[in-house]
Amino acid sequence: MLVLLAGLWGFFAGSALLIGAIIGYFFRMPKRLVASIMAFGAGVLISAIAFELMDEAYKLRGFLHVTLGFISGAVIFTGVNVYLARKGGKHRKRSGDYMLECDSLAIAVGSVLDGIPESIAIGLTMIEGGVVSMATVIAIFLSNIPEGLSSSVGMKKSGWKAISIFGLWLFVAFCTAMASLAGYTLFNNLPKGLIATNMALAAGAILAMLVDTMIPEAFSETHELAGLITVLGFIVSFILSKI
Questions:
Q1: 74, 208 in Cβ contact below 8 A?
Q2: Is 242 in contact with 118 (CB distance < 8 Å)?
Q3: Phi first, then psi: what are they for 131, rounded to 5°?
Q4: Counting beta carbons within 10 angstroms of the beta carbon of residue 30, is it exposed (0 to 12), middle (13 to 18) or buried (19 or more)?
Q5: Could you please report the per-residue DSSP string of 155-219?
Q6: What is the pLDDT along the chain (243 residues), one digit of tens a residue?
């Protein structure tokens, strides 16, 4: 039962990508609004990283495992992201004409890459006590809406058909479900040190993803307001984590 729930929570969080894509495709969204939503989503995820993942990882095993996992996650994500950028996926979360430079396969692979650490983190939060961290799920759900929205706007401009855009995000949502399920099943019986390391690894990968993909899109249009909007997202997620 818990295994199924882990997958369902992952799919729920990933489904926000599809919701965002539908909104972005069928409704004309001002670039500034898209960027503002992206900034808010970035703030939400930063809070989840700090208070739901890193804090939990530290409580399980302390600084050594947290530091090792956090840096490793960032290194792994950055390495794969650099490779995908060279293959044509550099601007996969941009809503403007940058998307014209992107390769379709690189966008698909990159989108899956972006969602995996978040989804694994959902499954990991269920290991202690068998109850998912709702703050983490909500944070990832809220941050996924602007990701799907921004990318679908860019894909539409570059000539993607609706069925291709929605099919991609449905596939990514399915992958997030599998990643969340794996986060719970693969690490469930491991020593607490390894669980802590993997939680921190997911956090490091998510933070690297934010800085490499979401924040540049947020700043591109909001400029002087990007910081304020990100702070608002952070405080909303922080409040959710404490309720």
A1: yes
A2: no
A3: -115, 130
A4: exposed
A5: HHHTT--HHHHHHHHHHHHHHHHHHHHHHHHTTTTS-HHHHHHHHHHHHHHHHHHIIIIIHHHHH
A6: 788 899 999 999 999 989 988 998 898 878 788 788 888 888 988 998 998 899 989 998 889 999 999 999 999 999 988 887 777 666 655 555 555 555 555 666 777 788 888 899 999 988 877 788 888 898 888 878 877 887 787 778 778 889 988 998 899 899 999 999 999 998 888 888 999 999 999 999 999 988 887 888 778 776 788 899 999 999 988 988 887
Residue 122 has which token pair?
């959902």
pTM: 0.83
Place of tokens 């290991």: 127
Structure tokens at 22: 């539908």
Residue entry with tokens 């926000």 = 16
